[in-house]
């Protein structure tokens, strides 16, 4: 299931890759953000995402869909053997998802500790959305809710989602798009430059993912896709 996030090579039982990068397992969390990574500028630019992903919930409550009904919908689509949730936070999506191998990845250990306490069957992974520590073509479903728009280059994360998905595997992506007043406020607050619907449609297609459904909810957009 896991692979080296730096070079993609296999890991042995002690979580060391073929080229000698070492990772660890501590307090129930697989840690793929090691010393090398901490020095990485890329990661630092990604770090604020996860701390703030909970903040927009209020906006969901004011949109047509409640957050719970959105999670319920995504969870039922994601339900399959191997499920990966990128930017899982405390792993709430797994309350709505049936999976045998349930992998919750986040960049914040703080959230992962809570996840481990609340949802012990979820495999907690400390990792980066732009270099997933996951083998290619090994996952049935991937979700990423309120994460990818925070990245400087959302394309990289979408490419990674496609890479780890099995053929015909499903994905669900929820992002902030540049659409209206609330979007402008959030973008200013987060200091991001959100992309529009066209960007996501083109990027998702570029990486061999077929859009099965999309839905705009105020400043948010949900994409349900399948790997071709
Ligand atoms: Zn390596």
From TrEMBL:
Pfam families: Methyltransf_11 (PF08241). One of its GO terms (biological process) is methylation. Coiled coil: none annotated. It comes from the Archaea. Gene3D superfamilies: Vaccinia Virus protein VP39. The keyword Glycosyltransferase does not apply. CDD domains: AdoMet_MTases. Keywords: Methyltransferase, Transferase. Residues 84-173 form the Methyltransferase type domain. One of its GO terms (molecular function) is S-adenosylmethionine-dependent methyltransferase activity. Signal peptide: none annotated. InterPro entries: Methyltransf_11 (IPR013216), SAM-dependent_MTases_sf (IPR029063). The keyword Transferase applies. This is Methyltransferase type 11.
